[in-house]
Amino acid sequence: MAYEKAFALLRIVTGILFFIHGIAKLQRGMAAVVMTFGDLGLPGWLAYLVLIVEVIGGLALIIGVGARYAAWGLAAIMAGAIVTVKWVKGFVGGYELDLILLLVTICVGLKR
């Protein structure tokens, strides 16, 4: 019982983090986000996909509806962020937060 409550709290807080990151992209302006993706050598349309997955996936984790499916999309975003941006920065100040979010989303995706 305590495990289920702790897991739900972890899922909800993780959902809040992703949702806020998606909203931050909107507040920054998608033109700037698309440009950042382009500067990284990524296609601009990917910025919109990441935004959609972060906002909708974050909400799914928060409310618990479709959370397992959303978690896999969020895990893919974290894996992509680690590989394309964060790895070269090293662990501290680089990919440590992305790694824990990747692992949490994998756990949510595997939850039955």
TrEMBL record:
<keyword id="KW-0472">Membrane</keyword>
<dbReference type="GO" id="GO:0005886">
    <property type="term" value="C:plasma membrane"/>
</dbReference>
<dbReference type="InterPro" id="IPR032808">
    <property type="entry name" value="DoxX"/>
</dbReference>
<feature type="transmembrane region" description="Helical">
    <location>
        <begin position="69"/>
        <end position="88"/>
    </location>
</feature>
<feature type="transmembrane region" description="Helical">
    <location>
        <begin position="44"/>
        <end position="62"/>
    </location>
</feature>
<protein>
    <submittedName>
        <fullName>DoxX family protein</fullName>
    </submittedName>
</protein>
<dbReference type="Pfam" id="PF07681">
    <property type="entry name" value="DoxX"/>
</dbReference>
<keyword id="KW-1003">Cell membrane</keyword>
<keyword id="KW-1133">Transmembrane helix</keyword>
<dbReference type="InterPro" id="IPR051907">
    <property type="entry name" value="DoxX-like_oxidoreductase"/>
</dbReference>
<keyword id="KW-0812">Transmembrane</keyword>
<feature type="transmembrane region" description="Helical">
    <location>
        <begin position="7"/>
        <end position="24"/>
    </location>
</feature>
<comment type="similarity">
    <text>Belongs to the DoxX family.</text>
</comment>
